[in-house]
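Dear support,

Our group has been running a series of protein-ligand predictions, and this particular one with cytidine-5'-triphosphate is the one our PI (initials K.S.) wants archived with full inputs and outputs. We had some confusion internally about which version of the output was final, so please treat the block below as the authoritative record. The input we submitted was:
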Amino acid sequence: MSLSLKQEFENMLTKESRLAIELSADNAMIFGVDIYLIGGIVRDFIMHNKIKDIDIAVEGDAIEFAEFLSSKVRCRIIQIQENLKTAKIIFPSGVEIDFASTREEIYTGSGILPKAHNFGCNLKNDVKRRDFTINTLAIKLTDNKKYELVDYFGGYQDILNKKIKILHEKSFIDDPSRIIRALKFKERFDFEIDEKTYNLMLQYLKIPDKNMPLERIKSEVKQYFSIDKEDIYERFIESESYKLFCDNPVQVINKSRLNEIKTLNIPEKPDIRFIYFVCLVINSDYTSLRFNLTAREIKIINQVREFLFCNTEKQDNLQIYKSYKDADNQAVLIYYLLSGDKNVIKFLSELKNTEILTTGKDLIELGFKPSKSFSDIFDLILKEKLDGKLKTKEEETVFIKNNIKKESE
Ligand code: CTP
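Confirmed final output from the archive:
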């Protein structure tokens, strides 16, 4: 049975996007290749989700086609990837389209990026390399079957049944990041993971390859955590997919503290996606190392570990302030999440923005000789300010005059 998605094409895309796609299709026919909307965009058409990216598969050489298109129509190639034979084009309206040559892929090891070959193959062989049936759908843009759904693996029915299903038994062995992709789509669309697919997931997680590169896994974990849903972290732990990258028990997150930091009235809001990620890796040096963390990620993890290690009773506001003032806000928040140290809340909501209004120049004008003792003087003022005893600069000046002796006195 053939299914036309013309209605969705007309109703769900902007006028500018439609025009860019139509121009591409007309020129593909002149150039002599078939082109198809492919993957996420087709899935989102059927589900009536917001369309994000426009991906087009070219049954031929996508770079040559993009060069042809940009010579015929007002548009510009802004990116070319020679190894995968892909090209990104921008139209004057700002619409961008990613053109990819159809290709097959061979996996040489678990988690290792596949080797692409047989560029320009037929569409069926291209979609065979993909992760889930719901992502194998295409819409033909050329010839008489324009707007017709091309569904080789039953993806349309799986969308209607809300099922996430892999295409073949080795899918997770080839690319274990698909385990996290399955969880991501499950959460994003409220779908179920098909039973057979789920069992293969569990089977892989029993003996994951300890040496596989974690680049794609890291990216998928971050995408998973960017889904704004209750208990997303807990469900990730329950799925045991953390076993892809660590043996240690993963850090549990205290929910009431999490809600507390989400609602704190502070200028720099908690980056929940990042906080979840740090909680996953903080207990394992080995994982941190394998994840190829960025300098900022390493810095924050080290700061949190140091806070946890030096979790001693703080005597006064000055000590609290000095402990956290130079740290990244996210590190301070994560430390609170893991320790429940209420001083952190005090620091963030009351102390953090405390500023001394007196300057070194003011001290000189008050008769103090420039010296190292200036920092002690500033500490005395700061302590009073943090305790709420001084507000204005005048009050600071009176405090200095009444309480701080000059060296000559
Ligand atoms: N893909 C895959 N295995 C992966 C990553 C991607 O098979 N590990 C395939 C999927 O079939 C997907 C396509 O490559 O449709 C493009 O990947 P991506 O842009 O991540 O997928 P989308 O489905 O567009 O997802 P999103 O909506 O999150 O952008």
